[in-house]
């Protein structure tokens, strides 16, 4: 399964209410407030569920050991995978009194940067970068290195939260001495309950999309689902109505490897990811139809009636979406019972359906949109618009 790249428009802006009526889960820890604000400014309802946290660099004895190992002899190549990681490495080395010596080693080595952020961090440190792949992928960096004779070369590889097992193994098989530099380590977020709730919301359809800004966050969400026996259900949700949006190909890889369709922007930036969602969801996550002479636009948790957006509670929205699946056809109460949130006895569920329909009609405003067919059920007085 390949990722769908959402192209940037000529104008970088999207409609200010493009995401109105949609709920988006955000798993980011770093720059979380900034990214949530980007989505909320476009009208989205945001569910924040931090998935991971960073181990403070100065407390990481593995990084200190790797740094000392790197300084034992000249380095031939240094792979810089992330800007924040490289800056953290330099800051930690300064705290240990090793920054001058590390800078000397890096000055004499070839610095291969995975993307523009890593390249910018290298240049900001007063160092020269030697090469950056067009794809911003570790795979292209690996192939670039393997195209040369690596026998006897010392290569430091800055990790980005997860082991690069295959990357390192292939370099070593080619004869290189590889030093793995764990500049930062990802650990589960201290309070995992928001992430567990987001897993449940994704499975139940309570969110329309989940946005990921790092591969470890993807792995953390999949791991949380697996711990509760919900991994298959979560993957099924991502393959169905819930959009998995990733900031770039590295972030998308854990989902793509499991056959999950993802969307991603052309440029791996938070702003570009927000714009990608603001274009994709209104195009692919909206049902448009005519009912009772009124135009309806059904979104995640709201419906626009003749252009006026009306938020709906979960039960009326669930009923409306099921009726819209079969526009103009009668949907029996027994079928509508199955889409209502929560469980209930048959008698109470019958009443719950009636109440949900009553609340739906009240929220919609104009009459004649939802019709009652006596002793059979309910239907939308509608047909789908051609081409929608």
Automatic annotation (TrEMBL):
Gene3D superfamilies in UniProt: 3.40.50.10090, Winged helix-like DNA-binding domain superfamily/Winged helix DNA-binding domain
Record-level Gene Ontology MF annotations: uroporphyrinogen-III synthase activity
InterPro entries cross-referenced by the UniProt entry: 4pyrrol_syn_uPrphyn_synt_sf, 4pyrrol_synth_uPrphyn_synth, OmpR/PhoB-type_DNA-bd, Sig_transdc_resp-reg_C-effctor, UROS/Hem4, WH-like_DNA-bd_sf
Enzyme Commission number(s): 4.2.1.75
4Fe-4S is among the record's keywords: no
Domain OmpR/PhoB-type stretches: 286-382
Keywords carried by this UniProt record: DNA-binding, Lyase
A Pfam entry, by short name: HEM4
Chain residues forming the annotated DNA-binding region: 286-382
Keyword Plastid: no
Highest taxon of source: Bacteria
NCBIfam families in the cross-refs: PRK07239.1
PANTHER family referenced in this protein's UniProt entry, alphabetically: BLR5956 PROTEIN
The protein's name: Uroporphyrinogen-III synthase
Species this protein is from: Nonomuraea mangrovi
Taxonomic lineage from the root: Bacteria, Bacillati, Actinomycetota, Actinomycetes, Streptosporangiales
């Amino acid at each position: 399964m390949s990722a769908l790249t959402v192209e940037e428009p000529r104008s970088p802006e999207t409609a200010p209410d493009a995401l109105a009526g949609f709920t988006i889960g955000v798993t980011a820890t770093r720059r979380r407030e900034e990214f949530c604000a980007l989505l909320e400014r476009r009208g989205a309802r945001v569910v924040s569920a931090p998935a991971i946290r960073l181990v403070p660099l100065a407390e990481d004895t593995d990084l200190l050991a790797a740094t000392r190992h790197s300084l034992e002899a000249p380095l031939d190549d240094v792979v810089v995978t992330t800007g924040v990681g490289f800056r953290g490495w330099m800051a930690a080395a300064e705290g240990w009194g090793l920054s001058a010596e590390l800078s000397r080693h890096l000055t004499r080595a070839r610095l291969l940067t995975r993307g523009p952020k890593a390249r910018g961090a290298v240049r900001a440190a007063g160092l020269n970068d030697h090469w950056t792949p067009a794809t911003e992928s570790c795979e292209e960096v690996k192939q670039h290195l393997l195209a040369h004779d690596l026998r006897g070369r010392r290569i430091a590889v800055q990790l980005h939260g997860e082991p690069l097992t295959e990357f390192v193994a292939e370099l070593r098989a080619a004869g290189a001495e590889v030093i793995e530099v764990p500049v930062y380590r990802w650990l589960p977020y201290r309070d995992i309950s928001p992430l567990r709730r987001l897993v449940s919301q994704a499975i139940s359809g309570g969110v329309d999309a989940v946005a990921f800004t790092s591969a470890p966050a993807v792995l953390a969400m999949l791991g949380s689902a697996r711990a509760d026996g919900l991994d298959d259900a979560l993957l099924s949700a991502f393959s169905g109505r819930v959009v998995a949006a990733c900031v770039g190909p590295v972030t998308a890889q854990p989902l793509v490897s499991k056959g999950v369709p993802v969307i991603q922007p052309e440029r791996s930036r938070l702003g570009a990811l927000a714009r990608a969602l603001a274009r994709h969801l209104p195009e692919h996550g909206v049902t448009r139809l005519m009912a009772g002479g009124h135009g309806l636009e059904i979104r995640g948790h709201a419906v626009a009636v003749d252009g006026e957006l009306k938020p709906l509670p979960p039960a009326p929205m669930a009923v409306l979406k099921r009726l819209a699946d079969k526009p103009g056809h009668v949907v029996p109460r027994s079928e509508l019972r199955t889409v209502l949130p929560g469980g209930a006895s048959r008698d109470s569920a019958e009443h719950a359906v009636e109440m949900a329909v009553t609340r739906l009609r009240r929220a919609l405003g104009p009459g004649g949109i939802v019709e009652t067919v006596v002793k059979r059920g309910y239907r939308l007085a509608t047909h789908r618009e051609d081409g929608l």
